[in-house]
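Can anyone check this?
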Amino acid sequence: MRVTIKDVAKIAHVSPSTVSRVIADNPKISDETKRKVYLAMEELNYHPNAIARSLANKSTKTLGLILPNTSEDLFTNPFFIQAMRGISVYSQKKGYYIMYNYSNNEEEEVEFIKKYINSKWVDGIILLTSRQNDKCISYLNDVGHPFVVIGRPEEPQNVLWVDNDNFKAMYDVVTYLAGKGHKSIGFIGGPHSLNVTKDRLEGYRNALNVRGLTIDNNLIREAYFSEISGYEVMKDILNYKEPEAVVTTDDLIAFGALKAIKEFAKKKIAVVGFNNTILAPYQSPALSSVDINAEKLGYHAAQLLIDKLEDKKFTCNNFIVNTQLIERESSE
């Protein structure tokens, strides 16, 4: 059934002529009335092109933030908190507000993005992850809405993005471990659909090749970003063999790996994590970890997006944030 202006007017408790004036962005209509009409349009999924035309030049001074996690995961993974802090610092400095949603899957993320765009509640969107065949990036490119990605997209030349050099960061970690005499080195990464996992795995493989070390695919495993998942995956590795060292792509995974090693390994196994979270020094043994400067990632993501929204000239469309390996007991 086709939704009409009359349907919108009924939901918003205004006249059809008022809805038409809202669509035309008539300055005589109050902001409160406009808000009621926009909410009614969203509820009925009524989004005529006239809305986009009439509001195209109207700034909300608000950025939409899409978090690829449930509410429970959000507050257990420090990366998102740190990145959000950086986003907030720069946005506040420039007079922008943040509106965020978290999701359970990629399809839900796309739906939130559609709502953001159709409601005209945000000027631009920040994505906190980049996947292979990313539906969010594809949709935002198709509709031409301003956005930035924390993470390297598959087609980096056409997108604003901020990231670390994840290939080099992992390459350096494996080289460091090999330099300590470790020859059998395992890898526990996040979901392989994520470009960050893909880049770090490539760095891992290349570092082993350069050193002439064997790549044992049975030591390459996938885990969720949680301590429980890291624990279970490390147990599986130990059932196969005990490597001399293990690199992980997230501290939460590393925490679980350390616990499994303590319970089931017969010898000491060096472990290195990523993100250098606040709890890393307090593990037993203290966890060596790569500091990816997550707050800087968020800060520069907001900077790139706001520069675009304010029509500032670009010298490049991306920003690479440096990393640093913080050595502790677990890598000895």
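Reply from J.R.: I decoded it. The chain has 13 helices and twelve strands.
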